[in-house]
Design brief:
Blueprint lengths: L6 E10 L6 E11 L4 E5 L6 H8 L7 E6 L2 E2 L5 H9 L2 E5 L10 H11 L5 H11 L15 H14 L4 E5 L7 H18 L2 E5 L3 H4 L4 E6 L2 E4 L1
Parallel strand pairs: 3-8, 3-9, 6-7, 7-8
Antiparallel strand pairs: 1-2, 1-4, 4-5, 9-10
Helix pairs in contact: 3-4, 3-5, 4-5, 5-6
Length: 225
């Protein structure tokens, strides 16, 4: 019996307009990610790694090919439909944290839980902040937290919803070496506990080496690393 991948990109391309004419960012990319699998997307800056994440998560639409998430063709869904598909099954962590500045750490983690209609959202948010070592910082706003602490909040926010698939785009890219190592250890530990699949964009070879499989973006194409 075949197993349906959580994510399947088939011949996906992305071309964007520019003053000098159309620019091909990605060219006929094929990728499958299965339940519980951890995949790193590596490659030089500007190679299209973040664009690949955007297409895979339904934040951007491909100009060719097909992107399927949990078996659904993302092209058949409007923006609201794609958001509903992601809501309880997909989470994203970014290099720049993307915390809401006017909300406390607790409120940042609580917000997506409340949007998803989860019961006991506030208690769950507190529990996850404790799990990332921030039990004493739940009332702090992002500007009162260090970069490492902000990324811990972002991890708690992402994983509290219990996603099946986590997209992490350079999650340690804005952190110093020691803090990056701590955050990476925490991320892999929490993912192992949750059994979520991971698609990790990184330029860090040590971080990429911790996954099950690596793929490389080069010249807009996806290659085995």
């Amino acid at each position: 019996m075949s197993i349906t991948p959580l994510l399947e990109l088939s011949g996906v391309g992305l071309t964007l307009p520019s003053a000098a004419g159309p620019v091909a960012i990605l060219n006929r990319v094929d990728l499958q990610v299965f339940k519980g699998e951890r995949v790193a997307v590596v490659g030089p800056s500007g190679s299209g790694k973040s664009s690949l994440i955007a297409l895979a998560a339904g934040l951007e639409q491909p100009t060719e090919g097909q992107a399927r998430l949990f078996g659904r063709d993302l092209a058949t869904l409007n923006e609201d439909g794609r958001a509903r598909l992601r809501r309880n099954r997909v989470a994203l962590v970014f290099q720049t944290f993307h915390l809401l500045p006017n909300m406390t750490a607790e409120e940042n983690v609580c917000a997506p839980l409340e949007i998803a209609g989860r019961e006991g959202a506030r208690a769950l948010a507190k529990d996850w902040l404790a799990r990332v070592g921030l039990a004493g910082r739940i009332r702090h706003y992002p500007h009162q937290l260090s970069g490492g602490e902000q990324q811990r909040v972002a991890l708690a926010r992402a994983l509290a919803v219990g996603p099946e698939l986590l997209f992490a785009d350079e999650p340690t890219g804005n952190l110093d070496q020691a803090t990056a190592a701590q955050v990476a250890d925490l991320m892999f530990s929490l993912i192992a506990e949750s059994r979520a699949a991971l698609v990790l964009v990184t330029h860090d070879p040590a971080l990429a080496a911790r996954v099950d499989r690596q793929v490389r973006v080069a010249g807009g194409r996806l290659l085995a690393a």
